[in-house]
Amino acid sequence: MSQQILENLSNFLPETVLTATLCVAILLNLIFRKNPKLIAYVALAGVVLSGYLVTKQIGMSQLLFSGMVVVDPFAVFFKLLVTLTSVLIMLFSVFSSEVLATVKRMGEYFALLVALTLGMYLMVGATNLLMMVLAMELTSLSSYILAGYTKEAPDSSEASLKYIIYGALSSGLMLYGVSIIFGLTGATDVFGVNRALAAGQTSYIALLIATILILAGFGYKISAVPFHFWTPDVYEGAPVTITAFLSVASKAAGFAMMIRFFYMTFTVAGTVPEGVWVALQGFEWNKIIAILSVLTMTLGNLVAVWQDNMKRLLAYSSIAHAGYMLMGVVVLSDKGLAAVLIYFVVYLFMNLGAFYVVMLVANKTGSEDINSYKGLGYRAPLVGVAMVIFFISLTGLPPTAGFIGKLFLFVALLDAKWIWLAIVGALNSVVSLYYYVRVIRNMFLRDPEGDSSPIQFSKAQVVLLLALLVPTLLFGLYYAPIVDFANASVLMFRPQ
Amino acid sequence: MELHVLGVGILTWLTFLPVVGMIAILMLPKENRSAVKWTAVAVTFLQLVLSVLIYMKFNRTMPGINSAESMQFVERLNWIDIASTSWFGRIHIEYFMGIDGLSAPMVLLTALISFIAVFASWNIEKAFKGYMAMLLLLDTGMMGVFVSLDFFLFYVFWEVMLLPMYFLIGVWGGPRREYAAIKFFLYTLLGSVLMLLAMIALYFSVVITDPATGEKLHTFNMLAMMNAANFEPGSLLYGASTYWRYLAYIGLFIGFAIKVPIFPFHTWLPDAHVEAPTAISVILAGVLLKMGTYGLLRVSYPMFPEIATATAWYLAILAFINIVYGALCAMAQKDFKKLIAYSSISHMGIVLLGMAAMNTQGMLGAVFQMFNHGTITAMLFLIVGVLYDRAHTRDIDAFGGLALTMPKYTGIMTVAFFAALGLPGLSGFISEAFVFLGAFQVDKLRVITIASTLGIVLTAAYMLWTLQRVFLGQPNEKWAKLPDINPVETFTLVPLAVIILVLGIYPSFMLDMMTTSLNHLVDIVAKGGAVVAVIP
Q1: DSSP state of B208
Q2: Continuous segment of H or E residues that includes residue B95
Q3: Is the pLDDT of residue B534 over 50?
Q4: Which residue is closest to B87 within chain A, CA to CA?
Q5: Which residues are B93's β-sheet partners?
Q6: I need a labelling partner for B95 at 20 to 30 A (CA). Which of A290, A341, B322, B500 fits?
Q7: Number of Cβ within a 10 Å radius of residue A452
């Protein structure tokens, strides 16, 4: 037993490194109170190191700790995604006036970012229902604190409180659902549950209720309608950096966990051609997700049209994007999963880019209101043009990366003959154009109000902007690498 | 037939020269207005020279359309190649360009109109550098659409045009520019997402064998999509006249119809035209509208011949509505520019009628009308621009007797007006005559054709009435001191007038290029249309 744990630990190195980093960061924070920047560097180094260790796990497929977590290409993909987001957010934070304003507490900020990353690592690898709930709690608890980090601002505390209340409710519901599943099947690991369900004799109604309850937990993490109510308020109140982190990494981890749960428990194992999944007989859960997807993207896009605060606008836009990505989960094929993974890579760059611009502008003008963007394109041309490209990419127009994301989603849908869903998705991207263009209009079609002096940014800030901008354009024109990587990463561990 | 300049294919040059120019312009200092201007002139002039070179080297006996061997100036490179997995076939997208008798006239038109548009932008005040950069990016998008033979590439260029157009209307347009710009953007995107879905459906239905490896693969190659034998049995779009094929056809049709624009998708056009600056109206009417009909001929007709044949009558009805409704609307306008915008809708209806005929005369007339409408309407918009620059109003009733104060201007204008109403001896007449000749031969279109000739009478009526109100009659004291057209304006108008006149007298200069290809297209559609009864 102990021999086995020791063996498994070697495959658990990235998580171990993160845990160690977390402990060291907390200790350093106590010792070097005067120099909180040190903790930032330690945290960054720890995350980079664990990311490096994750790259060593590419191609591995192994169950760890008696089936609690798994290391497989699917998990590795999402771990890398989370790591990249985490690193970028830490770099953003160095430029964020919100974070720098409270330099004393910076140590805990970075320590919590590490904890958040650790929670997400565990989420994407969890194969046991209890592990899933625990990993989700770890991420949630860290993000509650981070959302309220700028406690001087009243809406930040409000955001944090709302987040906790919704979070507590949905994780409670999810736990309840898990307990029903356990009652029905007598297992907590996804493979055991799957075997028990495949054997039949499970009450359909009970299973449906349990699924919907569990969906409340996942839906809350990925902010799918109708579990999205916290999103706009939290996104608006939290510091921009945290909002950006939640909108990408948290969503990615939520999706990874959800896909693993549904595809591992509620599909038929074996005897189906490769690349195709078959829902458990009589339980077409993917139709529930299809409805969820339509609701999520439509509501996200329609409500975004009325938003005047950039963070709220991007919050609703991120809800809409969750809806698009859910389309890839619906189709029950590896093509669909690959499309979701491709979309996440693309989404990382374009969405973080948009949030980064919001942060840069807020640093200089102190406002996140859409009206403060008037004439911005003339005051800061590079940032204006970058924002246009990020938004065009979010809309899904070529030659940007966003188009590739949408393209592969539609490819998967049409291949599986989900044509009505593809049409709904396509029409939704037309609606989304309207609110993205509202911002573009303010930046370029309107003249500045009041202050019209040029806005300058430091070299480092521009470099970071280009680091997000270049992939957004480049992957639109040459996307073979991300497609290759995503295709190789849809593999999920499944015991024979 | 291949042509390389400095080791790079001529079509690549044609397409990407403007982008090179754009980058150069972006690097120039903002204050140096004339450097920006002359860079744009140089780039578009080079593009024009290259297109004239194509005109001279073009082999008029090669049909093109669905055979890669008889496409000309072909450039074919691997763009994206993703190895297959067990559950996802190899993804293979080519950088595939080439032209035939259908696209060559459009390439010429694009180069010509872009060159003229740069001169028509001489007086733009606001953010001149940004304006020229956007204009050149738009140029790349337009040229790319006409030379692409890979659907994916085609789609990318198609969408690349949207953003520059949005900015050109939205930043440099008239008072209601924001509304017009977003309306244009949303409308066109709506059409293109439907086109995207149809494109993906086609991709999954077509299977070809890679000659290099013998591997079966899906493809975006347009020419492969035109061959019914390439459709995989059991795939979504396999067969003839199926429900899914109709759905895909309608998706494509809406995408193209919005661009043309075909009634009832036309409402963005008057807004966009009225608000856009002169040069952009010229491009919009001169080139962008042609993309819709070009798309129908390049994509919808050869890929869905049986549906195109079956729905020809409905297309003719839409053509009739466009012709007559457009003309009636034009007649009711008080705004000079809006009048020209509605006349465009009417004239594009004639293109549609020729396409619905599906015989050589009709098709030839349609494509020739596309070219002629490009030149004639470009002239008309330039003429309105000249007047608006001086008087700052476009109200037709505000003018009168301008022939006295601006004789040269009136002379040139008369050529354009008479060309638009189809006076024999000018190019518009030839194409309209061909269209009506072609459509009249088709039994079931005969009544519609006869009814559509009403449009010609109406066009003559509103054109002559406008001529009378603006240029003849009592001179308005207010405009007595308007200067006549200046050399730059003359330079933009005269070449177009010459082309209109020359093609009116000797249309073979252009018809020669198109005949072989269009005959071939008519054959393809006729053969494909006859298949209906064979496959269920």
Answers
A1: E
A2: strand B91-99
A3: no
A4: A275
A5: B80
A6: A341
A7: 11
